[in-house]
Every structure is written in C-alpha cells, then in structure tokens.
Amino acid sequence: MAQVPQTFFDALAVRTWCGLALEALGRAREEIDAINVYPVADGDTGTNLYLTAESAAAAVEAVFTAYDEGGRPSLADAARAMAHGALIGARGNSGTILAQLLRGMAQVLAHDGEASHTDGSGLRLALRRAADSARQAVAHPVEGTVLSVASAAAEAAEAAERSAGEGDCGAVARAAYEGARAALAATPGQLVVLERAGVVDAGGRGLVAVLGALVETFTGEAPRRVATSSAVHARVDTVSGTASMAAGDECADVPGEADGPAFEVIYLLEAEDAAVTRLRNRLDALGDSLVVVGGDGLWNVHVHVDDAGAAVEAGVEAGRPYRIRITHFGVGDVHTRGGERPPRERVQRAVVAVVPGEGLAGLYTEAGATAVLARPGEPPASGELVEAVRRAHAREVVLLPNDADLRHTAAAAAEQARTEGIRVALIPTRSAVQGIAALAVHEPERRFDEDVVSMTSAAGATRYAEVAVAERQSWTLAGICEAGDILGLIDGDVAVIGSDVTAAAETVLDRMLSAGGELVTLVLGDDAPDSIADHLEARVREAYLAVDTVVYRGGRQGALLLIGVE
Fold first, then answer.
1. Is residue 418 within a helix (H) or strand (E), and if so which, with residue range?
2. How buried is 288 (Cβ within 10 angstroms: 0-12 exposed, 13-18 middle, 19+ buried)?
3. CA distances from 336 to 284, 332, 341, 533 (A)
4. Phi and psi for 351 in degrees, rounded to 5?
5. Chain centre distance of CA 380
6. CB-based contacts of 448, cutoff 8 Å, min separation 6
7. According to the model, what pLDDT value does residue 250 have?
8. Is 8 helix (H, G, I), strand (E, B) or coil?
9. Which pTM was predicted?
10. CB neighbours (10 Å) of residue 255?
C-alpha cells in the first residue's frame, strides 16, 4: 500500500522512515542472510540489520508515545532517538555500521535543535555525514562493502541536490537510492569473495533496502526490487539460507572467512573518548573486522578475534562493558549475560506463543507453552521473543506469533535463536485462536517435523475473526467506517460494519459457518458485553447442528471478541 509522502524531513518523516525500513528489511531478511559471505559466511547479516532497525524504530516510537496527542517531538528528538536505539540494539558487523550511519545522519538532523524540519539540502548533508562517519568507524575500510554503497549514495545525493536546486527531499532520496543500487551491483567486481559466490554485498543490499524506504517516505512509492546475485556465477537459495556456488568454486581459502578469527565479540561500553582511542588500537592488534561506533560516553564495540577474553578485558580497561555477546562462528552463542551457564538440563521441545491478553496467557501457560504477552498497541520486539525462546530452555521450539504483523519479527527471532543452537520452527499463525488450534494437537513425543506439520495443519484449518471498535474514520472493504463503529473482521479484512456488538458478532459467525465447521472458539475481551457468549452459543446450537462451542476469557486483549472456526 502506498504511503502518504512526507514533504520535509521532520520528526514524522523519521518515524515513517524507521517503520518502512523495518518492513523492508523484514521482507529482505532471508534473502540478505542467504548472500552473506563477507567478512564471515555466517548467514546473519539480514537478521542483524533487522534487529538493529527494530531497536531504532522502537526508540522513535517511545519518543512519540511520550508526547500527548496534541504534541509531537522535534526533529532533533526523533533523530537522536533513532540513533540511540540503533546504537544500543546494533547486532553484528552490519548492524554496527548501520548504527553509525544513522548516528551520522542524526548529527546533522539534530544540529539545529529548534528546527522543526529540514529539506533536501539537509538530507544531502546527513547522507554525506553518515557515509564519512561509518567509514571512520571501521578500522580497515574495504571497498565492495556497505561503505562503498554508502559513499556512492552520498555522492549521488550531492549531485541531485545541486541539480535540483530547490531542496527536494524526494529527489535527493531517489538519487541516493539509485546511486546505492549501482554501487551495490558493482561490489562483486571489488571483492573476490563476492565474485566467487556470484552475489552482491549483503550489508550493502541491506542499506539499499533502507534507502528504498527513505524514497517511499518522501514519494509514497516503493522502488523496484534489487537483484542480489549474478546469473553467471551462482544463485541464492533463500529457502535453505545458503549461497550456492558455481561448480568448483570454494570460498574457504578467502581471507576473512574459514581461516579468520574464531569469535565475534560485541559489547556496549561506557567510556571516555581517549580510552576508546586506546581500545581501538588494542583490539586492532587482537583481530579484524573492528568497528567502534558511538560517542558522548556510550559506544558499541564489534570485533572478530581468537582470544575473546582479551577483547573483553580490553573493554574493562577502557570503561564499563555490558551486554557482552560472544559468538563462536559456526557454533552459536557460547557466552551471554556474563557467562552464566544454564544450571538445568534442557527439555526436548517447547512451544513459545505471543498472546494478546492475560486470560489467554494463562490458558497457554496451563497447556505447557511459554507465553509472551502482547498488550494493546505494544507488540513484542524480536528480542523479547528470543528471550522467551531461551526461557523455554528447550532443544526444539515451536514459535507461534499469533499475529500477521509479527511475522517478520518472529522470523528474525527464530533466526537468532538458531544461531544459539536451538532448533526453531515458525508456524505463521495470524490469530490467537489459530494458536489454540495448533496447541491442541501438539504432542512433544512425536518427531519434531511431524509435530510441526500437525500443528501447522490445525492452524491453517482454522478461520479467524475479531470484533473490535473502530478508532478512526477509514475506508474498508465493507465501506466507510466512523470512529466508534463496530467492526467485524474475517481473516484480517473488514467484513461487517455495525453499531451493536452482539449483532455484528452474530453476522460474522454466520458468515464463517456458512462454509462449514465443527468447532467454534470464542475468546471474550474485558469490554465485551456480558451476554454475548450465551447469545452466540445459543445461535450455534439452534442453527448449526453438530457444531460445538468453547468459550475463553481473554482479558484486556484489544479486540472485544476473537472467533475461531475449525
């Protein structure tokens, strides 16, 4: 769906851009992971970029939430939040560089703290600062990477801004995007490992997605898709998540890959500038892929080393390191949260599910699942889902997002959990009632694949609906609704617009059962009428023979009523 374009770069544009960038990286995540062959072929660049952008977007949303309905944060507030969120949430080499790119932009956008917006000239300056600061943050810049793509974007933006002469943000953003696309296509000719694999640089591909979101922010139109591989050399197998090499081509002999350092070390660091300068020199002697980003006393440190302990000790000498994360390439996490190892044996299998209300959280927990509560307007971030997977403490985990909008978030969480040695299957449930159906057929004693297939089939065979109150006037498939109208949504689309909750629910239920069904599941929200469950149960008994009904209390779940039909 086209976005309403932003005329200037203001706080709302920052918010829109962060949201669109997160969506774009979510769509491209698996594809980017699949072409990740440099500096280490560990297949996580897309996931790391997504997690970094997610942290930036969440920080911007928090700033907007802090204002009353009539207020709005300044451009400086939003830009600083974006940069800070990216800094503290940066993951991997690519995410750390993205954080510095956003920080560089924020330094320009927040330069005049009183300004409500900037134009194309400000955007051009921001893109130049971003490219320069990212290059400075990398100990040994390499051409053919995201750094080359960022520099090309800045150069193209400068040329466009000069020719336009009117500070058009859309023209500058589009020029930056096209410049980045051209530079991305050239990366295989700059790095032998990319040429041998027949793919473009993964980090650069991610930046192109982020710049594509910037174009959409200012024009309302999403740019065309970007090619990631060369037909001459190889293809990208996004299903298996690997880069398929041409016959006879191997990458194990390429410096920075299989013969490189064994560990990736990342941590946040509170330290003074002088101490960080000394830290850079020490870490540069210990390993490679060194990126140190940040400032004003807070830094994100990323390095690949053989001696992980020495890298952490260097951070201790420089200041206060925390959120220390050490990953052994090809094995998964070996150190998190200060090195504490789980004291208990892992169970074989667990289910982790996102649920919209306290009542359903209790229901899922009683059924043996680890529940992640999604309060109205507060969807969980992928980090919360990863933590829930860890809490489940199982070798195998079935993940139920129970919301179509959480698909990319859940996929990123699953990918992250897999790097920690956990086998994760994501079942794309779109509603909590589909999750209930999947959980009902879950059998831990079965083979994992068989259990996942059975749960997926049960979820897919369950139609879902909800009855909710419209928050604002909008166009729907059922017509125009006004704020306060009762909406009946079937499989995610508005099918009924009414004024009475019970009548709308009955209409929705009738439409769902017209296609048949054996079991109706009703999940009542706190604000649903007391009599609605009895009314709908009576309707099913009278009009639909041999159809059973089960009722649950969902608590404060956002929707007045959830309906499932199996």
1. helix 407-419
2. middle
3. 23, 11, 9, 47
4. -115, 130
5. 11
6. 349, 396, 423, 425
7. 31
8. coil
9. 0.70
10. 11
